[in-house]
Amino acid sequence: ALFSAVGARTIAQQTGLLQQEEAFLGGLLQDLGIMAMVQTLGDEYLAILHEVGNDHRALCRLERQRLGGTHAEIGAALAEHWKLPPILIAPIRYHDQPDQCPLDQLPLVQCVAVGGLAADVFLQNKPALVEQFFIKLHACFEIDRPTGEILIETIHKGTQEIADLFDIRLDGSRDAQSILADANETLLQLSMATQMNATQLENQNRKLQEQVARDSLTGAANRGRLN
Fold it and tell me: Looking at the predicted structure, is the pLDDT value of residue 195 above 90?
């Protein structure tokens, strides 16, 4: 929740969104439904949480499959019951599907959604999530990768400061430097693999062209090549 809240506010600040504190609160409250479902369903819901681990996207799919509804829907219903303002209800309801929210609330909901993805980056040792974070940043806000790397460092620092203030231990989270180092190493490996595949294809094409243009027995240029 802290990573999501700080992530949402940091992105809101970067994009110039006025509702920066609302973005923080939206990120903090977006998984309110999880707490409610733990309290009401007990072991049945804890088993779902245990099965998905920190994979938030998988959680929504499994909730829908087994319970017929998601924590986002439950959280939004609670927020409405407590008469929270619509600007806070929207990120709770749509953080997992921002494309379905009303257009006037979309920028704020996108900040919360990408902030939630930032939380996944810190809580899961999956370099692919870092690339997804950068892709979403660019798709939603046209923020480039170098700026995205700075945002990751800013989110980590801001979350650590708030955690220290409230004496919360960030067990299981990773620091920004190791996350970015792993992501860049993975990107380099993918780039090298792509280059190797391109070289192999080029060599294969050259060999095929030679086979078509030369006699298979003598190796001399064939009639087509001579023509």
Answer: no
